[in-house]
Amino acid sequence: MGFDEYASQYDAWFLDNMNVLRSEVNLVASVLKDAGNVLSVGCGSGLFEKILREEFNIVVNDGIEPSEGMGEIARRRGMNVTRATAEEADFGSGEYDTILFNGSPSYITDLRSVVRKAYDALPEGGRIILVDVPKESSYGIMYNLAKALGTWNHPLLEGVYPPNPYPIEFVEVANWRTTAEKVALLREAGFTDLTFAQTLTFHPLCSDMEEEQPVEGYGKGDYVAVTAVKPRG
What we know:
The protein is an alpha/beta fold. 35% of the residues lie in helices and 16% in strands. It contains eight helices and eight strands. The protein has helices at residues 7-16, 18-31, 47-56, 68-76, 111-121, 138-149, 168-172, 179-189, and strands at residues 38-41, 62-64, 80-82, 98-102, 127-132, 192-199, 215-216, 223-229. Strand 1, helix 3 (47-56) and strand 2 form a beta-alpha-beta unit. The longest helix has 14 residues, at 18-31. The protein is globular and about 55 Å long. The N and C termini lie far apart (43 Å). The model has no long low-confidence stretch (mean pLDDT 94).
């Protein structure tokens, strides 16, 4: 499945789950403080970047996005978007201080090679940020069950998922990884100084009931940011 035909559906889901969106944006904004020049890999429709610019004064100009439909929306929102997969894309050579993967790690097939490429592209002291749903989280388990069943409409999921669940078309093509897997890939590539922040700490049934501010660590949250640094010297 390509995301082109579902580009408007992607935005519509977030706008129907506004507190989830706000909580996730708050998390991303918190880890982008003093981020310098940022490249957003898998920027989608640029919805997060638009809110970050307008409400947090965090400007992310450059993005990479394989879906032409998504990328075109992001361009209309003011981003410079290169159409490419994360595996194909050029991350530059030292021109970005931070390489952000917000919600995109689960849609990258060869995350190991992409993390290594980000390491090579970043300057010393540069940061990589992986943000998505951990496989071990409530959302991750719920999504994988829906993926295995091929639908939200199943007795095993009755009463479990929120009123406006993530579209099954997006669920079916995702590959969620555990936090431990992502930590291992980052350390293997040479990154150090790992830090963690999380949000969506309520059960998925309740996560859109109120906007959350991020908290440190992982293990409670269904949306987790892992930040790591390319060491100096």
